[in-house]
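Bench notes, afternoon.
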Amino acid sequence: MIPVMMSPDPSAGLPTDPNTTLVPGLDIDGSWRHVAAGTLRETCFVVHNQRIVQVDDGCNGNLKTVFSSPGTQAFGSRITMFVGVGDSPTDMINGALYTYMLEVMGDGTLVGHGVLRRQPSGPITEGDVVWVRQ
């Protein structure tokens, strides 16, 4: 079973329910990694029900707390994924917003562009990325 790390407090009204609007035929659930690209650090993700449910910043066990992860949006073979994370389960101010615009390739990789915005007023980092399954 894939651990789903969503809101630490479901009573707060944060989105913890499974995605109910799955994109038909899109098989992206599982563990993923992209190497450092542009100004983005290497990052590992777990996707479940077409949502990013775990973020490991640096792929070294530095797990972020996922506060928001809307369902994947699809436009043909292109998908957009978003996730908002906090630096800790109790820190609702310091964190980051990840946005990935990816294309599903025939070899199973996801290729595209990623943007990371550190919060509350950090720099924007970005780069072209290739997601590979772990």
